[in-house]
Design a protein that fits this description.
Structural class: alpha+beta
Order of helices and strands: EEEEHEEEEEHEH
Helix content: 10-25%
Number of strands: 10
CATH superfamily: Inorganic pyrophosphatase
Distance between the termini: 29 Å
Shape: globular
Strand order of the largest sheet: 1-4-6-9-7
Oligomer: single chain
Length: about 200
């Protein structure tokens, strides 16, 4: 009898055979969550990172692309696009937001998404890119192919979350967004993070 096992969502699942055009996403958090969950890197299970202390609500499905890692190659891209003070990538899998009109009640799931852009976020001197994507087949967002097609208010809403979610009230932002980029650069970031993964973990 073959024993049951759970593939590690970071190391044991592919980014998708059509990556970076369509990527597999492991969703950790959904907009209704008042707890920030993240994958425990050793076991692969979701764990509680911290309760959300204030009114900040994640504005979209949030997770990471499997078999990615943000280090030297992601740092290089950040510097080449104008952020000269970046010391490294953030040593985590590549973060991704997935826009969808569907009310998904909990994370810990996989979905296919189409990258349409992203934010070059710098957090304490580290490149912490946030890829923006749409869920494949979504009737409201699924036709978008570049972040420039989104309403400006939507882009502002996404940026505002990342610029404020770590802050106490009236504190200055602990991070910054240097660039809002489109689909082509998002794909370059994904490929860079896959190279960083291969350099770190092999394969």
């Amino acid at each position: 009898m073959i024993p049951n096992f759970k593939a590690h969502p970071w190391h044991g699942i592919s980014a998708g055979e059509n990556a970076p055009d369509v990527v597999t996403v492991f969703v950790e958090i959904v907009p209704s969550d008042t707890i920030k969950y993240e994958v425990d890197k050793e076991s692969g299970y979701l764990k509680v990172d911290r309760p959300q202390k204030f009114s900040n609500i994640i504005p979209a499905l949030y997770g990471f692309i499997p078999r990615t890692y943000c280090h030297d190659e992601v740092q290089r891209l950040a510097i080449e696009s104008g952020s000269e003070d970046v010391a490294s990538g953030d040593h985590d899998p590549l973060d991704i937001l997935v826009l969808s009109s569907h009310n998904i009640h909990a994370g810990n799931l996989l979905m296919d998404a189409i990258p349409i852009g992203g934010f070059k976020m710098i957090d304490k001197g580290e490149a912490d890119d946030k890829i923006v994507a749409v869920m494949v087949g979504d009737q409201s967002y699924g036709h978008f192919r570049d972040v420039s097609e989104l309403p400006e208010a939507e882009i502002n809403r996404l940026q505002h979350y990342f610029l404020t979610y770590k802050n106490l009230p009236s504190e200055p932002s602990k991070c910054r967004i240097d660039l809002v980029y489109g689909a082509e650069h998002a794909k370059e970031v994904i490929i860079a993070s896959q190279k960083d993964y291969a350099n770190k973990f092999g394969g």
